[in-house]
Automatic annotation (TrEMBL):
It comes from Prolemur simus. PANTHER family: DUF914-RELATED (PTHR14233), SOLUTE CARRIER FAMILY 35 MEMBER F1 (PTHR14233:SF10). Keywords: Membrane, Transmembrane, Transmembrane helix, Transport. This is Solute carrier family 35 member F1. It is found in: Membrane. The gene is SLC35F1. It is a multi-pass membrane protein. InterPro entries: EmrE-like, SLC35_F1/F2/F6, SLC35F_Transporter.
Length: 392
């Protein structure tokens, strides 16, 4: 989780020899701070609350998908993703199209179209693989293996975003995973529907593949919204996501779509699903920028519990006290993780340029050697507007 601005009186003025270093750090959205890593209580609670909003949106996505697949036999995961990407395209891609100058859609495509094309494909297939896994493996396996996204995000953040964690962060992560294990144990004890599990190995591999792609997508998203902008990220995801999901829909799912018994109820469920998914995609970059990709994925562990609590009333699931224990254990882990900020370990020069190589790069060759590390990130609540880094 990344948030928190200090008053300017708390900022450490850069020494004359590190002016270029500070400028690059500002472009990356990070602030230099004194050695004051602990977040205020209000900021910590905001971090946790923002993550729970995302969990509730995922709960809505899960409930509408469950009604579509089980009550109306509409198994159309690619079509559902296609609807979301179309909404992103209509809102964010068109916003980029009407912009002027170097933030215009065509200018962005000329500089880095292939990078967004790869990201759009990764995002689409991450969703598809996890949904497809439900046909082969058990719910318990999916819940457990989906946690693989957490170490993926941590490792990618460590090597590519240069984020460094403290002992309290790892303790918080372990507590969150223990809470998830408690929920899975409760599912087993109450005999909650576990899925067919007809080809468990295939299903487990699909989950691991989807979790890995989710991790790559989340860390890439964090980098983009910190160095470029949220609107650019969502606009490009909408453009390439709609393109690839449209192709995949035509090839793999057109027959399933023709079998859907269309009526107003099914239409309403598709609208509800699309609204929740669009809200998730639109709000997640805001939360990632104010917290981090790691914090967001820890927060999403509670999504299954929200779905379960709704299922107690809607689907008559059996209740176990372990579910409440699991929920509060995960929240405790989130509070622990959010209680202290992470930091950047090295000189930000090692960040790879997402922009074109021809884009402007801060010239640090004439500056003295910059001391690495103890620069704290803004890992608590952040009130400033996201920077718009202009590129030639």
């Amino acid at each position: 989780s990344f948030l928190r601005l200090r008053p300017r009186s708390h900022m450490v003025p850069p020494p004359p020899h590190s002016i270029g270093h500070s400028k690059l750090q500002d472009q990356l959205g990070f602030q230099k701070r004194r050695n004051r890593p602990c977040l205020p209580l209000r900021g910590m609670l905001i971090s946790v609350a923002l993550g729970q909003v995302l969990s509730l949106l995922i709960c809505g996505i899960g409930l509408t998908s469950k009604y579509l697949s089980e009550d109306f036999h509409a198994n159309t995961p690619v079509f559902q993703s296609f609807l979301n990407y179309i909404l992103l395209f209509l809102v964010y891609t068109t916003t980029l199209a009407v912009r002027q100058g170097e933030e215009n859609l065509l200018a962005i495509l000329r500089r880095r179209w292939w990078k967004y094309m790869i990201l759009g494909l990764i995002d689409l297939e991450a969703n598809y693989l996890v949904v497809k896994a439900y046909q082969y493996t058990t719910l318990t396996s999916i819940q457990l293996l989906d946690c693989f996204v957490i170490p993926v995000v941590i490792l990618l953040s460590w090597f590519f975003l240069l984020i460094r964690y403290k002992a309290v962060h790892f303790i918080g992560i372990v507590v969150c995973i223990l809470g998830m294990g408690c929920m899975v144990g409760a599912d087993v004890l109450v005999g909650r529907h576990q899925g067919a599990g007809e080809n468990k190995l295939v299903g487990d591999l699909l989950v691991l593949g989807g979790a890995t792609l989710y991790g790559i997508s989340n860390v890439w998203e964090e980098y983009i919204i910190r160095t470029l902008s949220r609107v650019e990220f969502l606009g490009m995801i909408g453009l390439f996501g709609a393109f690839f999901s449209g192709i995949q829909l035509a090839i793999m799912e057109h027959k399933e779509l023709l079998k859907v018994p269309w009526d107003w109820q099914i239409g309403l469920l598709y609208v509800g699903f699309s609204a929740c998914m669009f809200g998730l995609y639109s709000f997640m970059p805001v939360v990632i920028k104010k917290t981090s990709a790691t914090s967001v994925n820890l927060s999403l562990l509670t999504a299954d519990l929200y779905s379960l609590f709704c299922g107690l009333f809607l689907f008559h699931y059996k209740f176990s006290g372990l579910y409440l224990l699991s929920f509060f254990t995960i929240l405790i882990g989130l509070v622990l993780y959010s209680s202290t900020s992470t930091y950047i370990a090295q000189d930000p020069r090692v960040y790879k340029q997402f922009r074109n190589p021809s884009g402007p790069v801060v010239d640090l060759s004439t500056t003295a050697q910059v001391e690495p590390s103890v620069t704290y990130t803004s890992l608590g609540q952040e009130t400033e507007e996201e920077p718009h880094v202009r590129v030639a």
